[in-house]
Amino acid sequence: MYDGASLNLPTWHGVVVRESYAQQHPEVVDAFLQAQTDATQYLNSNPMAAALSVAKQTKLPAEVVYLYNGPNGMVTFDTALKPELKDALEQDIPFLESIGNIKRLDLNAFWDPSYLDRVKAPIKPAQISGVDPVCGIPAANPTCLLRQVAKSKVRVAYVPSTDTGTRWFADKSVWVQDTEYLPFSTEEGARRYVAGHPGAHIISYAKALEGSR
């Protein structure tokens, strides 16, 4: 498996509209963007209900949908057109041209946040908040999560990969025991960490659970 976050470039999706159509039908563009904004606000306010709804329509497991769409998920639904996204697209253009997907792209003309400004669309990503009941600290420590899972029945647990921050299933992660328990989304990432940290070694999820008690 390959974790795209290792490229150090953001992955993102955007809305594209022909300039002529946007000029002729601004009300349609505004209504479309407003609908997206409303849906995003609902998703951020009701992450579990939204995940169950998407799962029902797509037949995907709700746990997978929540991994992407929930707070601190793999998809942020941040609607702002940020400079780092423009920089990433600029690096993509030569590749897209080389494989014939585009002939040329004037990025400055293509990149237009004015439509979002009209509907006041920018929305900040939903974040996890609160205090971990096991360790009494913000819920961002994989070892504390292991202890919670070990002592109680949970439907699913997610952890951020130590090297990239990508959120992944705790039981599908590759675990490393160092001075603490560290999850990785790929075996390559785990082995790279172990190679640079004497004494660290890869262990199974079951052993990580048992050792965290």
TrEMBL record:
It comes from the Bacteria. This is Uncharacterized protein. It comes from Kibdelosporangium philippinense.
